[in-house]
Design brief:
Jelly Rolls; 4-stranded mixed β-sheet; single chain; about 60% strand; about 0% helix
Amino acid sequence: MALIKGTNCGFLTSAPAAEPSGDSFGPADGKAWAMLDSLPAGNWKVTQLGWFSEGGYAVNYDLGIYTDAGASEPEAVISKSGSSGTSSWGWKTVSVDIDLTGSTNYWLAFQIDNTGNIYIRSENTGSSSAQLDSQSSLPSNWGTSSYKASHLLGVYALIEEVSAPAVQINIVDTWKDIEGVQINIGDTWKEVAAIKQNIGDSWKAV
């Protein structure tokens, strides 16, 4: 199957198992790669990150998620995890626990240590992608990309929906759940659908 966002790359609700078809691109090691995707509305956490390695060579790699700087550039890393790869050809993964904000753009990123032998899968259409040359790990801030294109990449984030956290107030030293929050607009009380707090320049559900 070709790379299809929402099916075997980008944000997914089930992890891909089959090898994706598409262009063989590389050597891709010694670089960092990222692809833009939009998280659906709701409250989500990421439980696994993965990228497809075309090459039977052991390699160390990083996987991570970045905020969106706009202008087809990732910005700041939200979380990253490293792993030592096996020599198998296929999906390389790490388990994570990352809370993200729904209806928000993020970049799914991976970095491959330099072996000179690793290729990745891509499609020459479908999403914004970015590349950084000469990287030994995913940087904290992406900076200016060495190369940008409209490509799908063989990278994914496995997501699961979680319940919105309760809002509580302390009454006589006891925490009580707030059943509803209202705001007065034009002398009419309106129900507040969601409360968010800005953490690290990213809005998180309260």
